[in-house]
């Protein structure tokens, strides 16, 4: 069994690794195929967001975790839009590139769903309780 | 939903992985593959049983634990829309790359 709460995909692309690296890491290029907007500085630790204007309103906060040009790129992002970035309730998205005879093999892995969901529910639980407490104290 | 909390622990995920790979296991068998005490293992198993991820039953005199495939389906169903979005995005990337000049 792969981890039950992990998404893994493999994609072979008929282009050199340098071009694929640029497509998945350059914010100007990411917005052309990934979402409708991407705002982040390409630096480890930098925070930014993705946007899908036609599909849903709001921004998905993200943070760049690691950049190892041209083979490994990782960021974390929030499952829901319009939430400030939070390490515990985000999932990890990893991109691995390797050179092949015909171009580049891309491996995508997103992990941490159960943990993010669990901690997010806990947080909501607490927030609700605090709101209830505030109401009660009024 | 206690299921996500049960899944959020790496040891419990390891137990699930072992049950999936080896089929139903007794506590003793499970313990052989894990660097934790028997008490800790029992505690983790109880959490997994409570979350309905694992079922305990008797095989003869021995109590064995096995995966509950229905519970895993619940998780898979929750993740499915996220996975579908990735398929769409990666398709977009493939098309984007085809149109890119070297």
Provide a descriptive summary of the structure in words.
The complex is a heterodimer of chains A (138) and B (102). Chain A is of the alpha+beta class and 138 residues long. Chain A has a single domain (7-112), classed as 2-Layer Sandwich (Alpha-D-Glucose-1,6-Bisphosphate, Chain A, domain 4). In chain A, 30% of the residues lie in helices and 36% in strands. Chain A is elongated. The mean pLDDT of chain A is 88. By secondary structure, chain B is of the alpha+beta class. Helix content of chain B is 67%, strand content 14%. Chain B has helices spanning 2-7, 10-22, 27-32, 38-50, 69-98, and strands spanning 25-26, 54-59, 62-67. Chains A and B meet through strand 1, helix 1, helix 2, strand 7 and helix 3 of A and helix 1, helix 2 and helix 5 of B.
| Tally of alpha and pi helices of chain A | 3
CATH topology-level fold name of chain B:
Arc Repressor Mutant, subunit A
Which structural category do the helix and sheet elements of chain A fall into? alpha+beta
CATH classification, class level of chain B = Mainly Alpha
Largest sheet of chain A: 7 strands, antiparallel
Q: Fill in the CATH topology of chain A.
A: Alpha-D-Glucose-1,6-Bisphosphate, Chain A, domain 4
Strand portion of chain A, in percent? 35-45%
Portion of residues within helices of chain A: 25-40%
**Based on the structure given, which CATH architecture of chain B is correct?**
Orthogonal Bundle
Number of helices of chain B: 5
CATH superfamily of chain A: START domain
The major beta sheet of chain B can be summarized as: 3 strands, antiparallel
Percent of sequence in beta strands of chain B: 5-15%
N-to-C SSE string of chain A, H for helix and E for strand: EHHEEEEEEH
Helix content estimate of chain B: 55-70%
Radius of gyration of chain A: 18 Å
Stretches of chain B where pLDDT falls below 50 for ≥5 residues? none
| Total of domains of chain A | 1
What's the gyration radius of chain B in Å?
A: 19 Å
- Gross CATH architecture of chain A: 2-Layer Sandwich
Largest interface: A-B, 31 and 31 residues
Protein name (chain B): Transcriptional regulator
Pfam family, one (chain B): HTH_20
GO molecular function (chain B): DNA-binding transcription factor activity
InterPro entries (chain B): ArsR-like_HTH, HTH_ArsR_DNA-bd_dom, WH-like_DNA-bd_sf, WH_DNA-bd_sf
